[in-house]
Specification:
The protein is mainly β and about 350 residues long. Helices cover about 10% and strands about 35% of the residues.
Length: about 350
């Protein structure tokens, strides 16, 4: 189906027989700076193609496709809901569930399986993706040059590379309330001035990146990942607080740069393994915790680390690193780690479901 008129509704179709062309002809691109991307990514075969058509409503569609499900170019205020797109078993063979380019769209209450990306956005500022499930693709949600988007309350399982990935240098994105598990990575951020909160991330190789600077990361539960959090921003401009790091092989890693302090207004994060010998009245520990420290990062894995942490040689080495220019490595410190989880209900849900579920 091809739509070129405004205010069209497509409701209740079962679409089969889609062509298998995925990438468009780059040589036919125009002179705009992103013309090559638009030509390549916005011209695949699709069950539904809409171009320069505002207020499209596509609902209750069932699509089986070897390429794309819906390609929407310059279709502001389009709504895609209760749509099922069944793509290819191997992501290299297929393409996108929904492509949104040069216009804000809403994707909600839908299901995407297989193919390359569930929802791929390019210059689609203001887009909303919510209450949608993604299974067995490359990326669940993929943002490129897209700011002021809301990605909320989605579920991603078994994504080869990442459940949600934000690339390029956008601003003002909100990634809230999503559940990502059994994927290569959980939520990978880039850009600035974004809000990442109330997400559950479990059983990934790398749970959360804080590469969007001047941003706020709070009330996320990061459970059972190989690496819980990855920090690589050059300037320590983020607020990282009230997150729970539990049962990860490594709670956090940090790239080169200044010390990152993950405490805000006297309260930090919950790190399984962090401990204190003297209690406090405000629910925080009096001992600082550094997930990048060679001893602290093993506290949740072996009792021997507790003894080693108090060794005079270890304390002397920490003091030297903290006072000698050039000797401190890129690191993270929480000066007021939480004594109890900040998000107990989400943590309990992850623990119970991880113990009983069969990994896809």
């Amino acid at each position: 189906m091809t739509v070129r008129a405004d205010r069209v509704g497509l409701v209740g179709f079962d679409l089969r027989g889609v062509g298998n062309q995925t990438v468009g002809n780059r040589s036919a691109a125009g002179d705009a700076w992103d013309a090559t991307v638009t030509a390549a990514y916005g011209n695949s075969d699709a069950a539904v193609t809409a171009r320069t058509a505002s207020a499209l409503y596509a609902a209750n569609l069932s699509v089986r496709t070897p390429s794309s499900g819906l390609v929407l170019r310059r279709t502001p205020a389009a709504v895609v809901e209760n749509v099922t797109v069944d793509g290819t078993d191997y992501w290299e063979d297929g393409f996108m569930g929904v492509v949104g380019m040069h216009g804000d769209i809403v994707v909600q209450n839908s299901r995407f399986r297989g193919g390359r990306d569930g929802v791929y956005l390019h210059r689609a500022d203001g887009t909303v993706i919510r209450d949608t499930t993604f299974h067995e693709g490359r990326f669940g949600v993929h943002l490129m040059y897209t700011s002021s988007a809301l990605v909320a309350d989605n579920t991603a399982r078994s994504q080869l590379y990442s459940g949600i990935v934000v690339m390029t240098n956008p601003e003002g994105n909100a990634v809230v309330g999503n559940d990502v598990r059994h994927s290569g990575s959980g939520i990978m951020m880039a850009g600035s001035r974004s809000y990442v909160a109330h997400n559950a991330i479990a059983n990934t190789s790398r749970g959360l990146s804080t590469n969007a600077g001047r941003s706020r990361y709070e009330h996320n539960v990061i459970y059972g990942n190989e690496i819980g959090l990855s920090a690589a921003t050059v300037l320590p401009s983020n607020v990282v607080r009230a997150n729970d790091f539990v049962a990860n092989d490594k709670h956090a890693v940090s790239g080169p740069g200044p010390l990152r302090r993950y405490t805000h207004d006297g309260r930090g994060n919950y790190w399984s393994g962090a401990y204190d010998l003297a209690g406090s009245d405000d629910g925080t520990l009096t001992r600082t915790y550094s997930p990048t420290d060679t001893v602290d990062r093993r506290l949740h894995q072996t009792d021997a680390a507790v003894v080693l942490r108090s060794a005079p040689s270890v304390r002397a080495l920490r003091s030297l690193r903290g006072t000698t220019p050039g000797f401190r490595r890129g690191s993270i410190v929480d000066t007021h780690p939480l004594a109890e989880p900040a998000n107990p209900d989400t943590l309990a849900m992850l623990r119970n479901e991880t113990q009983t579920e069969v990994t896809p």
